[in-house]
Amino acid sequence: MGEPQRSENAEAAKSEAAKSEAAKPHAAEARASAEVKASDGAEAPDRAPAATAKGTKPPLHVGMVGYAFMGAAHSQGWRTVGRVFDLPLRPVLAAICGRDETAVRAAADRHGWATAETDWRALIARDDIDLVDICTPGDSHAEIALAALAAGKHVLCEKPLANTVAEAEAMASAAEVASGRGQLAMVGFNYRRVPATALARRMVAEGRLGALRHVRVTYLQDWLVDPDFPLTWRLRREQAGSGALGDLGAHIVDLAQHLAGEPLAGVSALTETFVRHRPLPGGPTSGLSAVTADNAGQVTVDDAALFTARFPSGALASFEATRYATGRKNALRIELNGERGSLAFDLERLNELSYHDRTEPGSYAGFRRILVTEPDHPYLDAWWPPGHGLGYEHTFVHQARDLVRAIAEGTRPVPSFADGLQVQRVLAAVEESAGKNSVYTPIAN
Ligand SMILES: NC(=O)c1ccc[n+]([C@@H]2O[C@H](COP(=O)([O-])OP(=O)(O)OC[C@H]3O[C@@H](n4cnc5c(N)ncnc54)[C@H](O)[C@@H]3O)[C@@H](O)[C@H]2O)c1
Predict the structure, then answer these.
(1) Which residue CA neighbors atom 29 of ligand 1 most closely?
(2) Residue whose CA is at the smallest distance from ligand 1 atom 2
(3) Where is the sequence biased in composition, kind Low complexity (predicted)?
């Protein structure tokens, strides 16, 4: 409040950016280079200047809905991004929203938000909110995002974009219309923003792998192995849309398609629910943790989803998403094999990328470990000296960086709501195929 409104913000940001560009030699070349590299997060140096004085940049007021697992992760992103990256706008943690007044006020204090709301409609109605960040379960994504876009806000929405294709279609259409008014919408597939996966994308785009033959992806967790783990919202279809498929599968479908550079054409799938009844939660739940009560309820989502898939180029892909991989905590692994080389990434060793260059002499060739901490690796020019690695939370800082830049520059951020809709169509095809005992099911792209 008392600060410039959104349209003025964009203008002021452009004028700030123009001033600093004019001061730089070879600004046009730098801009051209940044445009070419924009898709992998590698751009001209963007470390925040030492004296980023509060108030010298136009503010971008963020209002976030949901304050538990992703609420904490996104808060970390918004709090940190302007202190690390040199952004044209200054993100302001203006308001956090939940339904329980005491809990949301405590979350506001803990995570650094200026004010708290107990109804997301009230948050969206506020004139001082520029961007609505949705960190709630999937059953509320569509309603909140559509209302926020209708109210003139930019939107960041956690994955999966929605619980159904129909909801995702409505969101993608609304985002398309809103983009004509300068409002931007992005979905939170944060694993694109690990420096090593962004580097992998760059290397595939450079042709280092040649024609792709295989994309092999697994996302393994084990928090449901205990049959007494309670029936939280993630195990209820009406709230989560699907189980391991929409939660973990959405991430790996997006990452596989992003790295391969093309959407999937069709799938053959199996899904299974291993434990069909679980105790009800005995109190508040957060992220993957909860306590149990005595009564039991029915699990209405998949526990695991396995599927094979074709890319239009002819490459084959395999996917496995499960919450029953005993001993595996957050094991997202992806390997790409091409005619000229291979790449492999493991989220549990996220500062590394394995690369095999088949054009090297056979006597010396082999998988080499690239330590992805160099300043010319994506996102890393603003962080620590080489060898001082990053972690999970940094993906949310990078997500905030890319979105703030897109808003200031008026370019469409990726992954867009249209990208989120396309992932939703893959998830729907997986469920359809699994329902028909793995019949190959084309994806309507
Ligand atoms: N990108 C990732 O790595 C990642 C990881 C985990 C979860 N997610 C996604 O983030 C979203 C949230 O998951 P989470 O793990 O943070 O869940 P969570 O259970 O930890 O938190 C959900 C929050 O939403 C709030 N909430 C629920 N309904 C609400 C409503 N109608 N109005 C206001 N607040 C409401 C709850 O009070 C809670 O604060 C989901 O879409 C999930 O798939 C993404």
Answers:
(1) 136
(2) 190
(3) 47-57
Separation of alpha carbons 258 and 273, rounded Å: 29
Residue carrying the six token digits 């990434």:
345
Question: Both tokens of residue 45?
Answer: 């140096």
d(CA 105, CA 117): 8
CA of 312 relative to ligand 1 center, distance in Å: 34
Give the residue whose CA is nearest to atom 7 of ligand 1.
70
- Determine the 3-state secondary structure of 172 from DSSP: helix
208-237 pLDDT tens trace: 999 999 999 999 999 999 999 999 999 999
Whether residue 422 has its Cβ less than 6 Å from ligand 1: no
State in Å: Cα 135 to ligand 1 middle: 5
Residue 25 CB contacts under 8 Å (≥ 6 apart), including other chains: none
- Residue 267 class from Cβ within 10 Å (0-12 exposed, 13-18 middle, 19+ buried)? buried
116-125 pLDDT, tens digit each: 999 999 999 9
Is the preceding omega at residue 160 within 30 degrees of 0, hence cis?
yes
CA of 136 to the centre of ligand 1 (A): 3
Residue extents of the structural domains in the chain: 6-191, 193-385+413-442
Identify whether the C-beta of residue 427 lies closer than 8 Å to the C-beta of residue 174: no
DSSP state of 349: G
C-alpha torsion sign, points 203, 206, 210, 216: positive
Q: Is the CB of 58 under 6 A from ligand 1?
A: no
Query: Out of 3.30.360.10, 3.90.850.10, 3.40.710.10, 3.20.20.150, which CATH number does the structure's domain 193-385+413-442 have?
Result: 3.30.360.10
- Alpha helix locations (H) across 265-342? none
How many angstroms does the Cα of residue 140 sit away from the middle of ligand 1? 10
**Band (196; pLDDT cuts 50, 70, 90):** very high
CATH H superfamily, domain 6-191: NAD(P)-binding Rossmann-like Domain (3.40.50.720)
